[in-house]
Write a structure and sequence with these properties.
This protein has 91 residues and is mainly α. 48% of the residues lie in helices and 0% in strands.
């Protein structure tokens, strides 16, 4: 059973969050406010598909959803469960 994602598992740049997005998520989990984490690590990268700006909470929520989906594809439900919580329940 395959448990790790490799470069061959990624279909494109939108398949998994880039390093800056992961840094913003990490900062948020470390206690930085949502706005500050997104502003610090994702400057200029918060526009949506239609070019409209997105909220900081929406940006971090999307990053978490992508990581949860990748964890489930890799059959890592333990990791998916750690990230699939309401934002108010972060630890």
């Amino acid at each position: 059973m395959k448990t790790r994602l490799t470069a061959a598992d990624h279909n494109g740049p939108d398949d998994f969050p880039h390093a800056d997005a992961l840094a913003a998520l990490r900062a948020w989990y470390a206690g930085l406010s949502t706005r500050k984490a997104v502003a610090r690590y994702l400057q200029g990268r918060t526009s949506g598909r239609a070019g409209q700006p997105r909220s900081a909470r929406g940006v971090l929520g999307e990053i978490r959803r992508v990581i949860v989906a990748a964890a489930r594809r890799a059959h890592r439900d333990d990791l998916a469960a750690l990230l699939a919580h309401p934002q108010s329940a972060r630890q």
